[in-house]
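subagent[fold] <- orchestrator: predict structure for attached chain, return tokens only, no commentary.
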Amino acid sequence: MVRFDSNILLEENQNQNSKTFISALVTIKYLHVAGAKVILISSWSTKTNSNLDSLDSVSAYISSLLKLKVLPMKLCHEYELTRLEESQETHTPSIYLLENLSQFKEDIANNSRFSQELSSGVDIFINDAFFQSHKTLASTVGVTSFCYASVAGFQFEEGLSQLKKAFETKENPYIAMVGGGNLIEKAAAINHLVSRSNGLIFVGNIAFQIMHALGFSVPNKYLEVGAFKEAIQIIKSANSRNIPIFFPKDFWCMNDQFKNPKLVSGHCIPEGWTPFGLGPNSLEEITTLLSKSKKIVWIGPVKFGLSNQDSYGTSILAKVIGKLSEENCDVTVIGNMACKALMEESMVSSNFNIIENASVVWEFLKGRKLPGLMALDRGYPYSIDWHTIYADPDRPLFVDIGSGNGMFLFGMATKRKDMNFLGLEMNGKLVKRCLETCHLSGLKNGYFIETNATSTFGLIVSCYPGKLVFASIQCPNPDFNRPEHRWKMVQRSLIEAILHLLSYDGKVFLQSDIEGVALRMKEEFLKYGNGKFIIDHQEEWLKENPFGVKSDWEKHVLDNGSPMYRLMLSKSLRE
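subagent[fold] -> orchestrator:
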């Protein structure tokens, strides 16, 4: 199932030569060629493309883009996918388009039941809508809890690459030009820009908040409630780094009683006059500042008060920035209005980085995690130098999945010097603490990696020089308020990776203080072990810890007089 971005794939005047558009098509074609049955999902409206007013028209349009047949498919009233109309005899890969998700409020609400039914029958979820990743939707976040694997598509990867490129600061001077308003919502993001750039230019309503904080007279109707404190902080931060802040020195203004516009000083806008554009002095000063730059980020429209975007000022700035890009200035333009103006006024060169959706960028600059990104499986892209980590990397390996504070692994590494021990843990702070302990103690047969083992176990352990002889999962954290996440650690992908890499006669140790969790782990390993995992004991649960080393949680549970539910599995030699 591919969640595509309708603003990219369906937009009426989309630049079909852009990397973003091409990568969106490549994702679908790649899957089709690979033999996958593909279900496309998204939400759209006639605002995106006035010609696309029905499921049939959208499927026909995507068919024309792909040069492949795309079949429309509806959800029934129970939110279940209708049967795919293919005979069982044919194995020809097909592409389906699910009906418009904007009709279902459950998508915006990230409804668990809707997510589960939406992903019914789906093995792999591919998020190819990076510029929607700041939203928590059932179609981008919720479905990941119910799919075998959740990965990024080529458009998602391209969007993420654009975002990273936009705020790399290799080139100086680096100037950020910020338009639009709503300073309170954007204050954290602007403070980030202050900390990284060599100067800021404000060309929207935020400029009025900065001017007010500097003591200039600004009509009350242009001031945002509560923005004064945030503006003061931005000014202080800029002063501490000794970087300039520019705001307009003059404006073109209009008045209902006069036909002709009037040029007024930015320091004193007369009562009854409404600014609608940048004045000549302002444009000259901005042009001079930009001309000295090696990197420019322009985010937000040149817009003041309640007026429309300043078309003249925007046009001048677009031409200036377009010319600078031809002189090898690194330019990023963010937001629909700014991007549209730039593409109308200048030829977009390879030095341009165009990001039309500003919302995801603002969230990124605020330092917030993007839900659509965080919901995907994490890869482990780093090469591991096992010879540096372990004194002897050929020793048998014991992997503890979800190693927590490392108490169990440290105890085992001290007791069994003939083995190497590896802890895989998602909590970065715990991993950092464990690695510091390894360093201080001089431990050379124990190590910890921050990762999501559910999706990276195979990538990490497959490159280990020795044999994997033991894997353990102890007390995975059940969240009973979110049942769809309750068993997320022990998924088919993890079990199959362990089965594939575990040596014959290798063992898997499972335990939990909650019987239901232990039972579910047992059932999942036996189900996805393809008959290769056998229980290593007669009794239902092991009474004693077979290693004589307890994890911190196990010790806590036993000290409180509660039981532990333990299970040992062996990998069978039989085929």
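orchestrator: received. Logging for downstream: DSSP finds 21 helices and 22 strands in the chain. Confidence is low (pLDDT under 50) at residues 85-89, 479-487.
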